[in-house]
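Q: Sequence in, structure out?
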Amino acid sequence: MDEQVKPVELENAKGQHLDEETLFVVSQTFKALSDPTRIRILNLLCSDEHSVNDIAEILDLSQSTVSHQLRFLKNLRLVKFRREGTTLYYSKDDDHIMNLLKQAIEHATHN
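A: Exactly. Output:
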């Protein structure tokens, strides 16, 4: 007689089931990390803050593209900004995600 396999329910670090909001935020975070342009931006911001113009120039992207992606990342609280005059400087806002990104990069480049 075959035993039925029961689905594993996700639990948080405290052993409690994840609520819908937490599941949504986690899925959005992985969505953010699934886009090559956002990965490039986050990787750049891992080490230092940069203006939109700097990011666009360093990564060879349009300012419009960079601004759009930064808005997405800011809404997820993955990046933050500070204003200096009319220039916005972006930096990482969450070391947890940056560590996850670094581990994924190490995994991808590991021989």
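The mean pLDDT is 88.
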